[in-house]
Amino acid sequence: MRRLLAFIAVFTASLLFAAPAALATSPHFVRAAGSINGDGSLTVSFKEAGLGTNQNINYTLSADASVTYVCVNKGGANPSASNKTTIAGPVSASGTFSSGKNGQVTASLTVDPPSPGDFSCPKGQTRQIASVSYSSVTLADATNGITENLGTFDSGCLLPRVRGAC
Questions:
Q1: Nearest to residue 25, comparing CAs of 146, 156, 165?
Q2: If we measure between CA atoms, which residue out of 88, 83, 164 comes closest to residue 121?
Q3: Sign of torsion, CA 55 34 153 65?
Q4: What's the pLDDT tens digit per position in 145-164?
Q5: What pLDDT is stored for residue 166 in this prediction?
Q6: Is 157 in a helix, a strand, or coil?
Q7: Using one digit for the tens of pLDDT, what is the confidence trace for 32-43?
């Protein structure tokens, strides 16, 4: 009987001490910042804490993107206005990361600009991205229902040395 009472006491005590640890998790983004890369993609690096130990957390980076593609000839120019197209649409990337033993995730997600579709360049010219912008950029921790709004990112002219590109 004493063993049973001792077991119950130890079991109850362990529940009392374990419960606050489970309740102590408080997911929140410590930081999240984005930048447009040379290829026109957008990378958002972030850190989230308060996740609990060894939890798999699902993230989604989403945005509305607009990209202008141009054709560039061997002389380094965009020779005609018809050799440009602007494509707009939603973009997103997802990833799952483990919080590890410290209850934090430090990671990055990258979205690419919308595809040029069937826009192609004449022989002797190459298709390049002249500019890209991402608006309504949002990073979401889908596991815990946390969202971070990051605003708008605009590349400006990515081809400043190409006449007629921007």
A1: 146
A2: 83
A3: negative
A4: 999 999 999 999 999 999 88
A5: 87
A6: coil
A7: 999 999 999 999
